[in-house]
Amino acid sequence: MLTTAAIEERHQAELKQADVDHNTPTAGAMIGHIMANLTIQRRKLRQMKWSAKGIDNGTFKTQVATLLTENDMLLDKTAERLLDEGEVIPTTQAEYTEYGMLTEDARIKYWDVPAMMAELVNDFDTANLFVSRAIKLAQKEERFALATDMIDMLGYNQHQIRVLQNQLGKDAREGLDEEDDD
């Protein structure tokens, strides 16, 4: 059993390493951001499931319930992989708030279903910025299991974007990629 002093020593070493990892990004640090985004997305999905209204809300709520289940599986798989790699994972609300890049808005509960879908598209697209970076870092660090998991997550996110965009009557990348100013 660890003493209070030993626990504090380990915690301080973890904080110091996290600071180093985030200043010179590592795959583990980048994936910590992904875990934070998944945690924020979980709250947003719950908010949407609880408050979606309109003629198409039943179908959307079923879709969101599936996304919630898949989000939880991705979060657990990601945490387990990081632990397999000897990484310390974010576990507190403070860490998720610091590392997360998805936005939250209490007003979502008043949005219509298409606005909620558009928000999910933007969240998956934002998440992919971190996932793509994590893939490159993991490959550079020769952490191939991490890279493989992140490649799988990138594919999952891209699929969700396409499905949601199609439901909104759009092509997969419509409105997401910056237009060239030629």
TrEMBL record:
Chain coiled-coil ranges: none
Keyword DNA-binding part of the UniProt annotation: yes
Domain Ferritin/DPS: 44-172
Keywords: DNA-binding
Pfam families: Ferritin
Gene Ontology molecular function: DNA binding; ferric iron binding
InterPro entries in UniProt: Ferritin-like, Ferritin-like_SF, Ferritin_DPS_dom
Gene3D superfamilies: 1.20.1260.10
Domain of life where this protein originates: Bacteria
Name of the protein in its database record: Ferritin-like DNA-binding protein (Oxidative damage protectant) (Dps-type)
